[in-house]
Design goal:
With 296 residues, the chain is of the alpha/beta class. It has helices spanning 5-17, 20-26, 31-45, 61-81, 98-113, 128-136, 197-206, 222-230, 240-249, 277-293, and strands spanning 50-53, 56-59, 90-97, 119-126, 142-145, 154-168, 188-192, 214-219, 235-239, 253-255, 262-270. α1 crosses α2 (20-26).
């Protein structure tokens, strides 16, 4: 059995675009050459890798199993090409859930890029579930997420500690007391959407009391939660990273809660993707920043 890197490159382009014409453009081949490369790869493996539907393609189970190792093989080949190079160039795509992206990674990537002008650096933002799924598709080099995740294709490494806080507008009835009472869940709440790490931690902390929770507004960003609570929409819960400035400015008031809202933030990598020099350099850069700041 003989496979070529070009065949794997074509396969990955087809897996991403699910269309021969668009994949052909991505790898600078004609559509017929792209189809021929796929046919040769499937013949060499003895398995079809896609289900055909008209002009469209969809990865089947065998194709999904090949995707990670194929990406790893291409990454390793590119790493070999630049073995004598440095970590100053190349492409790095980092995924992060919303709080981490907005309050940690955006500034960290900017400082990392300052002396790496030849590098192509990208930050992809979504909730924990969305970022995990993109990493499983090998569309990211690594990811940082707020919620725990368990998948055999992913390696999860504890990165830093974080804490959620409950907060209200200054004129909320509970703001004066500075703490939640036994009737806390009888109040209205503004929460992040299903799939966000923040929402998962809060729901888990409530335990059996979650059925009493009155969520009147669900939104897809931490900033929107903070602004809705400030406008009187109810109580909110977010990472302290996300509301520190609002709390310091008095736009929001932190309320002591009876729940354990501490959590671990995680670094995720794909088990079958090799870490190039640029990835390793960024991990070291970010870990150094975290050590300088102390645990959050």
């Amino acid at each position: 059995m003989t496979l070529t890197l070009r065949q794997l490159e074509v396969f990955l382009a087809l897996a991403e675009h699910e269309h021969v014409g668009r994949a052909a453009e991505a790898v600078a081949l004609s559509p017929s050459a792209t189809s021929s490369a796929l046919a040769a790869l499937e013949d060499a493996l003895g398995h079809a890798l896609f289900d055909r539907a008209g002009r469209g393609l969809r990865l089947n189970a065998d194709g999904r199993r090949l995707r990670g190792p194929a990406r790893a093989a291409l990454d390793a080949a590119r790493e070999a090409e630049t073995l004598l190079g440095t970590d100053r160039g190349g492409r790095l795509i980092v995924g992060a859930s919303t709080t981490i992206a907005n309050h940690v990674l955006a500034s960290a990537l900017a400082s990392f890029a300052a002396d790496r002008l030849a590098a192509d650096l990208r930050l992809v933002v979504g909730n924990t579930r969305e970022i995990r799924d993109r990493l499983l598709d090998v569309a990211l080099d690594l990811a940082y997420v707020e919620g725990p995740t368990s998948h055999p294709e992913l390696v999860a490494t504890p990165w830093r500690e974080d804490r959620l806080v409950v907060f209200a507008a200054p004129d909320h009835p509970l703001a004066g007391a500075g703490r939640l009472g036994a009737d806390a869940l009888d109040h209205q709440w503004v929460l992040r959407e299903e799939g966000s790490g923040t929402r998962e931690v809060f729901v888990r902390a409530l335990g059996d009391d979650v059925d009493r929770l009155q969520c009147v507004l669900e939104v897809g960003s931490s900033e929107a939660v903070a602004r809705a609570v400030e406008a009187g929409g109810g109580l909110g819960v977010l990472s302290r990273l996300a509301v520190a400035r609002d709390l310091d400015a008095g736009r929001l008031v932190e309320l002591a809660s009876p729940w354990d809202l501490s959590r671990t933030l995680w670094r995720l990598t794909h088990r079958h993707a090799s870490a190039g020099r640029l990835v390793e350099a960024f991990v070291e850069h970010l870990d150094a920043d975290a050590s300088g700041e102390g645990a959050t």
